[in-house]
Amino acid sequence: MNKQEFQEKYGMELKVARVRKKLTQEQLAEKIDCSSVYIGYIERGLQCPTIFQFLKIARILSIDLNEFFKDFTD
User: For labelling alongside 19, which of 30, 42, 63, 74 has CA 20 to 30 A away?
Assistant: First the structure.
């Protein structure tokens, strides 16, 4: 899996988790102190968040990091 494929896959996973939490991109962006445009870029695989931003997103969306990354380590 190349970088672009990775970004697209985890971006879609983040979107699914956000929708399950019933948050809009705007609400999530406010919680992690960034723009909703940036969240959209992440979800579409166009941007890669920093580790710090990703950890904030994971906490807000209740993402289990081991579960989230299990498919990426194969």
Answer: 74
